[in-house]
Write a structure and sequence with these properties.
This protein has helices spanning 60-75, 84-100, 102-113, 117-136, 174-188, 202-214, 228-236, 250-262, 286-298, 318-330, 350-365, 397-400, 416-424, 439-448, 481-486, and strands at residues 4-5, 8-9, 26-28, 31-33, 40-45, 50-56, 146-147, 153-161, 164-168, 191-195, 221-223, 243-247, 267-271, 277-280, 310-314, 369-372, 376-377, 383-384, 387-390, 407-413, 431-435, 453-456, 475-476, 489-497. By secondary structure, it is α/β, with parallel strands linked by helices. The strands form 7 sheets. The chain has a 7-stranded mixed beta sheet, with helices on both faces. Strands 11-10-9-12-13-23 form a 6-stranded mixed beta sheet, sandwiched between helices. A 3-stranded antiparallel beta sheet has the order 7-8-24, with no helix packed on it. InterPro entries: Ald_DH/histidinol_DH, Ald_DH_C, Ald_DH_CS_CYS, Ald_DH_CS_GLU, Ald_DH_N, Aldehyde_DH_dom.
């Protein structure tokens, strides 16, 4: 990472300039509007801690307006009623517009979230367009089934859009999460209110404008920026919202479920935290394993739900793995995400920055050995060195809690059975990585770890066709693939009598 993108040497790129901020108001019923209260809040540049812009602060009254617009668009508008092929055509235009604005969107996520610009331009934003095209292909292929009844009835099922959905997205990969949820909901024929994370509102507002330009009818896609306890809580408890899809922390996920239960028992899907195991066996290529392990935890400065933060290495190669990991971490370049030579940008904000540093202190207090890193770096901004602890015990806070930062916990194991037991010794169950040349070991471990996705001899191998989501306290429900579409549909059974039919 940090040296080549799309086959182009990073040295050929120049350090890019930040983008112009064009949209800072709420997007409701096809228009940018001020919040009802007139309040705004500051969004910050994590490179410096300085204010980027003031953004409209939506709360309950603004959520009410957005839900009303979405309800009208669903109950009486053309989006759920138009042929799926027409919805797909508009979504393809939407994807084309994202392609035309790759650089600006990538810059917004770099400025607001600290994402590497090169990752945004060559991975994140192209994938956003890809998600829209993938789900556009489903829009005219939403079919029910003909049922074989045991009596003289004809029966079939209809897969219908679930209705008005609330989409609550996190701050770590803002554009990616926006398009992942929105593209599936659009294909299903739903209307929606999106609540971006308060730390990263800018790209969501820009994408909303592209949706309007593509021809998505007013009221179908609404964006209300604001804070979780006000705007987010109002959305999750709204009586006219039919479903919530939430990605974020386990703690907030609980509150989402409570709000849904206490309101109209709306359907909920949750993609929550993780403490993913990365398991390296003795037969692995150590250099490859080190590269994968570092990508698994240090990519996006560890601010990713599937981060492979618990690294288990079999005893035969443990010492070599430790030595090479330390060497690699020291060569990892931390700095301005607009610089193409940088491997790791700043943490998203001051709160996250301070939380990670506290956990590094916990690691030392609990008796782990700091192998490398462990400090803030730079004179300003929220930069933290890639940090590796050894001699980590499973009951230490750095091994149990989701840190959401560039902190690796290295642990040793002897047998396959021990590796499986250690991997499952967590309240989370989002992802796992396995590095081995033994197909029998790979098959056994992949079937034994209690997680939603397993990557064998790779990591972050996401694809539009591969459903993604967790188990245990990592949540339930899938994004991506056909299952990602199905959660925005509801099944209705229709039965009519038949008379004098030659068969049932």
């Amino acid at each position: 990472m940090g040296t080549e993108y799309n086959g182009v040497a990073a040295e050929q790129f120049k350090v890019a300039a930040p983008p112009e901020i064009k949209f800072t108001k709420l997007f409701i019923d096809g228009r940018f509007v001020d919040s009802v209260s007139g309040k705004t809040f500051e969004t910050f540049d994590p490179r410096t801690g300085e204010v980027i812009a003031r953004v409209a602060e939506g709360d309950k009254e603004d959520i009410n307006l957005a839900v009303k617009a979405a309800r009208q668009a669903f109950d009486h508008g053309k989006w759920p009623r138009m042929p799926g092929s027409e919805r797909g055509r508009i979504m393809l235009k939407f994807a084309d517009l994202i392609d035309e604005n790759v650089e600006e969107l990538a810059k917004l996520d770099s400025l607001d979230a600290g994402r590497l610009l090169t990752s945004g331009m060559y991975i994140d934003i192209p994938n956003c367009a890809g998600m829209l095209r993938y789900n556009a292909g489903f829009a005219d292929k939403i079919h029910g089934e003909t049922l074989k009844m045991s009596r003289e009835f004809h029966a079939y099922t209809l897969n219908e859009p679930v209705g008005v959905v609330g989409l609550v997205i996190p701050w770590n990969v803002p554009s990616t999460m926006f398009c992942s949820k929105v593209s599936a909901a659009l294909a299903a024929g739903c209307t929606m209110v999106v609540k971006p994370a308060e730390q990263t509102p800018l790209s969501a507002l820009f994408i909303a404008q592209l949706a309007k330009m593509a021809g998505i009818p007013d009221g179908v896609l609404n964006v209300v920026t604001g804070f979780g306890p006000t705007a987010g809580a109002a959305l999750c408890s709204h009586m006219d919202v039919d479903k919530i899809s939430f990605t974020g922390s386990t703690e907030v996920g609980r509150q989402v479920m409570i709000a849904a239960a206490n309101s109209n028992l709306k359907a909920v899907s949750l993609e929550l935290g993780g403490k993913s195991p990365f398991i390296v066996f003795d037969d692995a290529d150590v250099d490859k394993a080190v590269d994968l392990a570092h990508m698994a935890i240090f990519y996006n400065k560890g601010e990713i739900c599937v981060a492979g933060s618990r690294v288990f290495v079999q005893e035969g190669i443990y010492d070599e793995f430790v030595r090479k990991s330390a060497e690699k971490a020291k060569s990892w370049i931390v700095g301005d995400p607009f610089d193409p030579l940088v491997c790791q940008g700043p943490q998203v904000d001051k709160n996250q920055f301070e939380k990670i540093l506290r956990y590094i202190d916990y690691g030392k207090e609990d008796g782990a050995t700091l192998l490398t890193g462990g400090k803030a770096c730079g004179e300003k901004g929220y930069y933290i060195e890639p940090t590796i602890f050894t001699d980590v015990k499973e009951d230490m806070r750095i091994a149990k809690d989701e840190i959401f930062g560039p902190v690796m916990s290295l642990m040793k194991f002897k047998t396959v059975e021990e590796a499986i037991e250690k991997a499952n010794n967590t309240r989370y169950g989002l992802a796992a990585g396995i590095v081995t040349k033994d197909i029998d070991v790979a098959n056994r471990v992949s079937r034994s770890v209690r997680v939603g996705v397993v990557w064998i001899n790779c990591y972050f191998a996401f694809d539009n066709d591969a459903p993604f989501g967790g188990v245990k306290m990592s949540g339930f429900g899938k994004d991506g693939g056909l299952q990602g579409l199905e959660k925005y549909l509801k099944t209705k059974t229709v039965v009519t009598p038949i008379y004098n039919s030659p068969w049932l």
